[in-house]
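User: Hi! I'm working on a homework problem where we have to compare a predicted structure to a textbook description. Could you give me the structure for the chain below?
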Amino acid sequence: MQENRELNTGRKKPVHLIIDHREHASRLVSELGSCSDHILWKFAHLRCGDYLIEHKFIIERKTYPDFLLSLKSGHLFRQAYYLKNCSHHSAIVVESVSPKERYCKLTRQALLGALVHLKLIVGIPVVRTLNATETLRMFYYLGQQMQHSDFQIRTISPMIHVPGNKLEKNQRQKIKLLQMIPGVGSKKAMALLRAF
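Assistant: Happy to help. Predicted structure tokens:
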């Protein structure tokens, strides 16, 4: 495939990619055959996310309709919480698809609110790509940058507030999880924790 030839420039070390076994039928996996010279990949079970790049960066990949459906169901925020608490840096990649696709109906405000919540409150970046080929190219570029000895990931600190009084670790985690629900702040989270 001609687009993937752009990746094979110079003599660089191949990027290591671990793919969650549930992604075996994805379009991105079918694209991997054409770039086996510069991406070494294997399937494994990942506790969170879909793709692990260079054993350091986990990606949750969604098509745009999947992103909207998981947002509508609330599953997106649970996934974001797991990503934030896993031992790797993480991001969500949203792939656009053909404009002929019918999306679930969500208001522009709901979508914007979700993006603000993910990026600024939870601290998970959301990256948009055109298709599976561009997502794969992004993985390659990220992996190449991560191989530099001076590479450093700068993350957004989440704005989730945990009350200052002494709480057990599991209580702090429950409060953080509750605060991921839109409209629930630290006081409401504490009240819910006490009630239930």
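For your comparison, note the following. The mean pLDDT is 81. Helices lie at 2-5, 27-31, 64-73, 75-85, 108-122, 132-146, 169-179, 186-195. Good luck with the assignment!
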